[in-house]
TrEMBL record:
GO terms for molecular function: D-ribulokinase activity. It comes from Alexandrium catenella (Red tide dinoflagellate). The chain crosses the membrane at residues 38-59. Coiled coil: none annotated. This is Carbohydrate kinase FGGY C-terminal domain-containing protein. The lineage of its organism: Eukaryota, Sar, Alveolata, Dinophyceae, Gonyaulacales.
Amino acid sequence: MEPIAAVFVCGGLSQNELYLREHADALGLPLHLPREPAAVLLGSAMLAANAAAAFGSLVDAMRAMGQVDARVAPNFNNDLCRFHNARYEIFLRMQRHQQEYRALERAAL
């Protein structure tokens, strides 16, 4: 499987510059914004076109029907990267702890 190279963003929050910038920074990936403002509806049309065999695959439908309008590049500031990496490590630890708590609860029942 190929590594993720970019994230395609749609919906209401795709209009929020701060949201986009923070997500690009946290993910360390560029965000691509669709040209079509109703991208969710366009996605439904892509699925329908694929179901009707109008394209060879869903990926072909996406390439033909979807267009990128703008991109938001991540900021690779070292302090910011360290901060986001630390937050991710905290998340992973919290997830492991939650699994331990659930195991304790299951054992008690």
